[in-house]
């Protein structure tokens, strides 16, 4: 086998990637924490962290971020599972369904935000539809900082539209790994679809679900263009605060404190999912 | 949402065991009904995905003064590229469009050149540290763009490449690289090792065997993977906005001028950002499942 003859070869092949990731991943990550623990003059200390925690927007941003995650993930999972089951059922034109459901993989959060702005804005599609059905008499103002419920509703819908495909593709790949026999056996015993989902599919999908949950949560911490496009300054999340502190206040230290905080939250949530949904070794792959 | 739960409403015939004949008929009926429900669910889900794309398209192609018309009609009365022309001829748009393409192309080339060898190593060699490397690559996905962009902006200012296409392209390459390594790895796993070994037995050097045998077989998959890198870069907005001031990419320009730009500008911009990605997803549709599904393992 080739691997015995050229012991150094794999390392040479990995070297460019490792070097690049060291410069553009490892170093910035360390220096993000460095920046967060310095103040504008470069002196070490907790000044920037304290400014972040003491900022009037901080608590609101944290709360909104968490509310969004809690609201988005169940909706996306239900949608993604429905899509995955539809694809797995091998309908006519299965490839077409998959392609349609996977379309949003190519849609940016900014484009998604503006698209849903066109729907939710005062003279937009939703109001046109509701009025056409006779449900409202005059346009309802959804995107208003005084009605955070509707702002969050719009963001949840836009995010569910854009990012469900990522979970769906994961789940479809996982479903294809479930032997047909299991589902046929469940059929023989007269299981309903719901029983099949609860007792056979979900347990066997656990590795895919775990990965999707982790990935989705990490991405949700970064969702920011959707929020800005839909809510402007009416809604704030952690990453838009990082953007504001860097772009508007020209304070990279507090911005880095926000970034470091987001990283800590991402790692904590990843560990949480690994702990809540343990995957046994033999379930992987 | 109710869409997911709907098929559960299909009733189970309890009498199956008692009256096999009636049971069979009931089961057949249940199956037809289930099938119909399945198609209905499939169509509803497709509608959920497609409707917003349709709506933004209609909005982007209404005349500029008709954009504010209310109520809107699902089938537009007038079609016009006026809004689109207004967007394209706005200050900075063409320049940012060019920047977006350049950045995406640089990211595509760099991440493919740097990532493919590592993917090959993961697929073909058993070596000490292989699992550690894989884990490192996987874990990079946990690091938000936010945390990389801000310190990198500070470094890029020091290096004198802040506010150039290179700063954004390097950042996008870093974002795409883990993805490229894992995908190319899974693509090379799919090329039979026997063929490569046969070529070497017949006198090819390992490099020749790679170029003449492995590469042609892996090429479609590799192309799909690098095209996807293009989409990642084309769509990315946070780092692009942080790392530029004047040399904006299209999403960065749109985001930074969002509050000041009129609605027709935004709608045209959204459509303009959407369409290339949709075309690309269409082109690589056959590879999507393999790419994402395998990477997440």
Keywords:
heterodimer; A: 285 residues; MetI-like fold; 0% strand; B: 297 residues; mainly alpha; 2 domains; disordered N terminus
Explain this structure.
The complex is a heterodimer of chains A (285) and B (297). With 285 residues, chain A is mainly α. Chain A has a single domain (57-283), classed as MetI-like fold (Orthogonal Bundle). Helices cover 74% and strands 0% of the residues of chain A. Chain A contains 14 helices and no strands. In chain A, helix 3 crosses helix 14 (252-276). Chain A is globular, with a radius of gyration of 23 Å. The mean pLDDT of chain A is 87. Chain B is mainly α and 297 residues long. Chain B folds into 2 domains: 2-45; 91-261 and 274-295, MetI-like fold (Orthogonal Bundle), CATH 1.10.3720. Chain B is flat. The model of chain B is unreliable at 1-10 (pLDDT under 50). Chains A and B meet through helix 2, helix 4, helix 5, helix 6 and helix 7 of A and helix 1, helix 2, helix 4, helix 5 and helix 6 of B.
CATH fold naming of the largest domain in chain B: MetI-like fold
Q: First CA to last CA of chain B: what distance?
A: 27 Å
Low-confidence stretches of chain A: none
Largest sheet of chain A at a glance?
Answer: none
Radius of gyration of chain B: 25 Å
Number of strands of chain A: 0
SSE series of chain B: HHHHHHHHHHHHH
Helix content of chain B: over 70%
**Outline of chain A, from the CA principal axes?**
globular
- The CATH superfamily title of the largest domain in chain B: MetI-like
């Amino acid at each position: 086998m080739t691997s015995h003859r050229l012991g150094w070869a794999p390392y040479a092949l990995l070297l460019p990637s490792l070097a690049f990731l060291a410069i553009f991943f490892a170093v910035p990550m360390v220096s993000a924490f460095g920046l967060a623990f310095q103040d504008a003059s470069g002196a070490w200390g907790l000044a920037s962290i304290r400014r972040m925690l003491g900022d009037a927007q901080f608590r609101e941003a944290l709360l909104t971020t968490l509310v969004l995650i809690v609201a988005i993930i169940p909706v996306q999972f239900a949608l993604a599972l429905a899509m995955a089951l539809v694809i797995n059922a091998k309908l006519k034109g299965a490839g077409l369904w998959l392609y349609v459901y996977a379309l949003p993989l190519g849609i940016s959060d900014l484009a998604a935000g503006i698209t849903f702005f066109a729907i939710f804005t005062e003279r937009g599609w939703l109001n046109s539809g509701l009025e056409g059905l006779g449900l409202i008499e005059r346009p309802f103002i959804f995107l208003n900082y005084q009605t955070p419920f509707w702002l969050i509703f719009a963001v949840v819908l836009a995010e569910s539209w854009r990012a469900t495909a990522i979970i769906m593709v994961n789940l479809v790949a996982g479903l294809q790994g479930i032997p047909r026999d299991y589902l046929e056996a469940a059929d023989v015993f007269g299981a309903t679809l719901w029983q099949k989902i609860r007792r056979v599919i979900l347990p066997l999908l656990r590795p895919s679900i775990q990965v999707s949950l982790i990935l989705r949560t990490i991405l949700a911490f970064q969702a920011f263009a959707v929020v800005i496009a839909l809510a402007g300054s009416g809604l704030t999340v952690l990453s838009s605060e990082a953007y504001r502190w860097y772009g508007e206040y020209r304070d990279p230290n507090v911005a880095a404190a926000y970034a470091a905080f987001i990283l800590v939250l991402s790692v904590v949530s990843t560990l949480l999912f690994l702990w809540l949904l343990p995957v046994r070794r033999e379930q992987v792959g | 949402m109710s869409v997911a739960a709907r098929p559960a409403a299909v009733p189970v015939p309890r009498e199956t065991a008692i009256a096999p004949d009636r049971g069979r008929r009931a089961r057949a009926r249940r199956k037809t009904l289930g099938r119909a429900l399945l198609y209905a669910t499939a169509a509803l889900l497709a509608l959920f995905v497609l409707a917003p794309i349709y709506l933004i398209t209609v909005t982007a192609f209404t005349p500029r003064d008709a954009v504010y018309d209310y109520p809107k009609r699902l089938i537009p009365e007038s079609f016009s590229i006026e809004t689109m022309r207004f967007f394209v001829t706005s200050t900075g748009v063409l320049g940012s469009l060019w920047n977006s393409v350049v950045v995406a192309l640089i990211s595509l080339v760099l991440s493919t050149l740097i990532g493919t060898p590592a993917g090959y190593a993961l697929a073909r060699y058993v070596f000490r540290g292989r699992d550690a490397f894989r884990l490192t690559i996987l874990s990079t996905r946990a690091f938000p763009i936010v945390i990389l962009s801000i310190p990198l902006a500070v470094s890029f200012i020091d290096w004198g490449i802040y506010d150039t296409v290179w700063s954004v392209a390097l950042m996008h390459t870093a974002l795409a690289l883990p993805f490229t390594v894992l995908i190319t790895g899974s693509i090379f796993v799919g090329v039979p090792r026997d063929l490569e070994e046969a070529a070497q037995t017949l006198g090819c050097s390992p490099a020749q065997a790679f170029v003449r045998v492995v590469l042609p077989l892996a090429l479609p998959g590799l192309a799909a993977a690098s095209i996807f890198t293009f989409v990642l870069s084309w769509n990315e907005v946070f780092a692009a906005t942080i790392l530029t001031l004047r040399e904006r990419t299209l999403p960065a320009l749109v985001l930074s001028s969002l509050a000041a730009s009129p609605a027709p500008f935004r709608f045209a911009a959204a459509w303009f950002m959407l369409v290339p990605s949709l075309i690309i997803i269409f082109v690589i549709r056959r590879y999507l499942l393999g790419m994402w599904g395998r990477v997440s393992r």
